[in-house]
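Assemble and predict.
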Amino acid sequence: MKPVRLLKGWVRRLLATRFLALLRKEIQQILRDRQLIKLLLIPPTIQLLVYGFALNPDVRFLPLGVVDEVHGASSRELISALTENQVFVDSARPGSERELARKVERGELTAGLVIPPDFRRRIAQGRTAEVQVFIDGVDANSAGIANGYIQQILRRFRPAGSPATPRPPPVTAAVTFLYNPGLRSSWFFVPGVMGLVLTLIASLVSAVALVREKDTGTLEQLLMTPASAWEILLAKIAPLFVLLQVDVALALVLGRTVFGLPFRGQLPLFLLLSGLYVFVGIGIGILLATVCRSQQQVLLTAFFINLPLVQTSGAIAPIESMPAFFRGLSLLNPLRHYITIVRGMQLKGVGLETLWPHALTLAIMAMALMAFSVSRFRSQLS
Amino acid sequence: MRSRVRAQCSKELLQFRRDRLTLGLAFLLPLLSLLILGFAIRLETKHIPIVVQDLDRSHLSYAFTDRLFATDQFHPSRWRGTDPVAAIDRGSARAAVIIPPDFSRRLKAGKPSSVQVLVDGTDANNARVIRNSFQATTEFFLRDQDLIDATQPVRARIRLWFNPGRKESLYIVPGVYAVVLWIFPSLLAAIAMVREKEKQTILQVYASGIGPGELLLGKGLAYLLVGGAMALVVMGLGSLIFGVGFAGDPTPLLVGTTLYLASAVSFGLLLGARSATQNAAVQGVSLIGFLTALLLSGFIYPVSNIPFPLSLVSAIVPARYFILISRDAYVRGTGWPGVAFDVLVVLVGAVVLFVAARRSLGAMQLDAGAGR
């Protein structure tokens, strides 16, 4: 009987503290704000799904037009060799070279192949036959891949009538794909988008929560209470932190159920590091809130920060392909480190033993951002 | 009616000009996006760090390693220890090549040998490119060493049209125009629209006797002008910085850009009229804007790769058609015969979006009236 009363008294005292009163106010405010709950659930879901499904870098099913002036077995063999792997699809047989050229020019066909009349004769005589290929170079990357592919096929192509007999090459490269043997591109994009979504939401939600108090003048009222700046901020951050962790879980579950993404690392460590990253995002948000005076300004400056963060993080375009300057710059980008951690833990199943540099960087960034933004927050109020 | 639209338009521009930070950001943000998207997005796989574990250390295995690093595709990553997979785990190498100890012995004896290649499959696209380059490199090596028959019965004379040097900026930059000129004009228009509602000034507007259509036209016109200025700055500087010039008749681009801006602004007005707060409006515009203009438009990867239900959405994204217009003007140069259809689609998009905005504003007026 006695310990229960003691506990009751202790809980009552705890709830009576300033911090908890503030915390309760924030939680009530959030629970009443349907818009916020929607914001935390709907955009991340849509983003994860669309990025995961729509971003597909496969170079396949490129429409190929053929002008075959031979109409023989050897030319048919060449066409089927080129279309066998589904990189090219034999999709048009224009009547003349000029019509073929016009179609490639307009972008209706990605590549055009012209097999000249002397093709069969030259092959039968064992001489080298030459075909003409045009490739639409507008998409430089696909064009490069298509080009390499055609050359690779032709190097191996041995028509039935030619005297040269094929022999298996003495050296083969036995390629094994680690971590993602099915080469599913969503496995690359989904962890990246998870980091992207967390950055966008964490910074925006925390910035708006603070600026709204400033906008409506209730911040001054809060400050007139005996609570310190730390208490006010902490009470604001704590419920957001919990809600953002829900987003982390949401992303994991979606990745798992929709895209079959494995999770090979240690879950508690992952949640811990994600929490660290959420702090970075919230820190960015508070910083924005101290710079801006209205919601409109916060929303626009959030764009200003988030766009470069996302684009230099390797979430969409791989970091190795970037110019050297951006590759260097990306080392300062917390999102890059977080995405490395997510990919490492989800796909590779590695732990702190290899990820510690990234975790350390995140920890330092989180602390620096929080300390800086809190001190700015305090100074702008006095 | 005309004077009321004009008055609304000039009031809007005045308000826009007064907020310095917004004004600055309205021009800085598109430029920043242009620079970052234009410079940082590169798709071609180059400078891939790899590690080589040569267990043979013979003349032939050295020749094989040299062949690997002969192009700028791969570069050696420093590596210590005995397990090359650790380097891939750590992320300091994307692939590991293991040359077996009996490599040269087997080759000299005329027996086939196999080089083991472990590729980091995390980035599936990169992994595929790495595999293809390994196979090509192996073939080059065999030719160099006269280990296979180098004659080739069929050769191709390949010409890359429009972009023989395979400059990736020619592909990316005209697409960036579509992304930037969609997101920012619609963002500004949406904020301008929803602000009236949030601050309740919309009631004053209704009391003033201006009709909803006139209000939308006035606001739309103001942001169309702002968008036009943005387009001039972004496209002008983009052409200078990235060295992208007109390839053909620029009039389709001129008409297309105006219509495209009109549809972006109408889209912003529509979302502004439908959302309750600025935050919600900006979230909506940026979410839908980025998803459609960046992902479903063919800006990065071909639209033909988008799978079925999403491909339907992609078919009605104006950015998809504007990208075709823009790439035609800057790279292809076929002019009106090539892109007349795309210009038409953008026009239809602008009309549909404006009508939708007009409708939801009517509904909003009823709401406001009922609330009084």
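Chain A is about 65% helix and 10% strand.
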